[in-house]
Write a structure and sequence with these properties.
By secondary structure, the protein is mostly beta strands. The chain has one domain: Beta Barrel (Sortase, Chain: A). It is 11% helix and 37% strand. It is built from two helices and eight strands. It has an eight-stranded mixed beta barrel with strand order 1-2-3-4-7-8-6-5. The chain is globular, with a radius of gyration of 23 Å. The N and C termini lie far apart (53 Å).
């Protein structure tokens, strides 16, 4: 009798499980690389650059990388891949010609940015949006504020160059998010 009850319960539980139910594949956990980012690659705009670590004293103290072809990482922001916004910037042009982020304005949603750490495979970021802002209207609360996303912000100069020492009057800002295991966005 007990055996019949157990078999009936087992049969009932099997009938309640839809035939279309799929077992979710195992997704490995995300492990943040140690150390600092060493390079950035953006295939669609042909960028492959070293990352300089710029120790600045606050969010408004932005300084460009020392080399025209390098990208600067603002090391008071999140590390690329960590929770928060990692902020990186590069020159638009040099005294003679285009620099590392000359084509940054051409990045489109869903395109890929790769950040390499020394001891791990590169982290993949997916571009969410690109926008041009006047210097007086940069989205600083978004850029420097807290977030639960694993975001990457790239920016460079744009607009009109002013020879009075103020430089360009706009910035191109690109926002991307980390592609996590299982192809989810961080």
């Amino acid at each position: 009798m007990l055996r019949a009850v157990v078999l009936a319960v087992a049969a009932l539980s099997l009938s309640l499980t839809p035939a279309s139910a799929k077992v979710k594949p195992h997704v490995p956990p995300f492990r943040m690389p140690t150390g600092w980012p060493v390079s950035i690659t953006i295939p669609t705009i042909k960028v492959k650059a070293m990352v300089e670590h710029l120790a600045l004293n606050g969010p408004k103290a932005v300084d460009a990388p020392f080399k025209w072809g390098d990208v600067g990482w603002y090391d008071l922001s999140a590390r690329p891949g960590a929770i928060g916004h990692a902020i990186m910037f590069g020159h638009l042009d040099s005294t003679c010609c285009p620099a590392v982020f000359w084509l940054l304005k051409d990045l489109k949603p869903r395109q890929t940015i790769w950040i390499q750490y020394k001891w791990k495979k590169p982290l993949q970021f997916r571009v969410m949006w690109t926008k041009d802002y006047p210097d007086s209207h940069l989205p600083t609360k978004f850029m420097y504020g807290s977030t639960t996303q694993r975001g990457l912000i790239l920016f460079t100069c744009s607009g009109v160059f002013h020879y009075d020492g103020s430089g360009y009057d706009h910035k191109i800002v690109v926002y991307a998010r980390l592609v996590m295991p299982g192809n989810k966005l961080g």
